[in-house]
Specification:
about 220 residues; alpha/beta; four-stranded mixed beta sheet; two-stranded parallel ribbon; 8 strands; about 35% helix
Length: about 220
Amino acid sequence: MDLALEMLGLEPAIAVDNWSPAISSYQKNFSSGEAIFGKVSEKVSLVVKNTPSNAWLHLSPPCPAYSQASNASWSVKKNARKEVGKELAAVLQIIEATEPMVASLEQVPQFDGSKEAIDLLIGLWKAEYAVRRTAIDFADYKCPSRRERTIWTCVRKDLIDKLPIVERTIFDEAVWEGLVPEPVPNPGWWSAIEPIAANLPNSKLATYQQKLIKENHGKIF
């Protein structure tokens, strides 16, 4: 996401994550901006202090609490959802304090019907943001596997008149034209790993992948 925003001409100012490899990756890829290890709820004042005016704020809360792919028990997911709710409440504090032009969020589709999603939607409405939720599958955009996600795009209401609104729903959730790229043919996982396949040990590949590579001698499938 950081790289995509950088391609749009935006410069990363601050990143917060409680997973140390993510912080290390950010520091390696971006010389500008501050990378902070910890939870957003613990760093609200620091984020507010370092967030420039008219910023773009991107949110990526953990998805295992909602994902069907997770085999965690319901009690574990329930506790995890409470933690997500706590972090999103902290994000709303940041939004209210810094008033970014745009806030975006990526989550699994199951998140949309949760209490945390409804609380976030109401909080954004109170903070005077219009929200557009778009369901996409990243496999349609050259991701080597199916990755269904809902993308929230939240725009400050004083900027709404600059968007081609075609529909309004409850809590000023909005539908506007454009902003979603046209899908491209799914290239499959081989196209994604082909440049590095020769150096990948078998331990990094599923058994069926090893078999297909051997049988097809590098052909795309």
